[in-house]
Write a sequence for this structure.
């Protein structure tokens, strides 16, 4: 495939005479793994940071009150089903706040529109609220930390492997068709013992 798209000649012109399609595919695989590791690192960092902020806000300004399910929405997202509640509650100033909250099939089927549910919101950010029991958890925070540290480790390993392959293979590989030649030792002069053996059997 790469021979057809790029051509061996083009690969060697861009990456050096020692490059081949096999080596290019290995480098491309390492680059893809490097980018995936970077993506996992970024997701783990930003998500875990967001969870830390939510923990701190709920601990400092969390208020529990009663809300209600005003609507239910379900359907299919690609190959998986989703179940959502539209939950609404009112703050002491009578302002209404509404949010769509994901749930599971069992709770979705057992809860009717108009049912009362307990919600917990942040006093300074009333639009930030959760159904009680569905707040951010430490388990989710640990998973995001695993993503962060695992992504960092994978990124470092793939970067080191790519650097070693990029710097070492070009110098070690030779162009196809090159046949190494063995140096020919210079002829040595014959010693006295060799001369005596050459004259063995001759009569004077």
């Amino acid at each position: 495939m790469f021979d057809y798209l790029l051509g061996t000649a083009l690969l060697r012109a861009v990456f050096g005479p020692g490059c081949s399609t096999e080596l290019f595919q290995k480098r491309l695989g390492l680059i893809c793994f490097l980018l995936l590791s970077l993506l996992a690192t970024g997701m783990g960092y930003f998500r875990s940071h967001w969870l830390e902020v939510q923990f701190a806000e709920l601990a400092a300004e969390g208020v529990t009150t009663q809300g209600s399910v005003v609507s239910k929405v379900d359907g299919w997202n690609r190959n998986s089903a989703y179940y959502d509640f539209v939950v609404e509650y009112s703050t002491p100033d009578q302002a209404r706040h509404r949010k769509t909250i994901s749930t599971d099939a069992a709770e979705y089927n057992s809860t009717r529109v108009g049912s009362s549910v307990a919600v917990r919101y942040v006093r300074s950010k009333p639009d930030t609220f959760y159904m009680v029991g569905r707040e951010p958890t430490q388990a989710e925070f640990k998973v995001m930390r695993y993503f962060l540290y695992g992504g960092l480790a994978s990124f470092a390993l793939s970067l080191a492997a790519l650097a070693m392959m990029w710097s070492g293979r070009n110098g070690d590989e030779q162009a196809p068709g090159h046949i190494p030649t063995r140096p020919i030792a210079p002829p040595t002069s014959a010693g006295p013992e060799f001369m005596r053996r050459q004259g063995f059997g001759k009569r004077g």
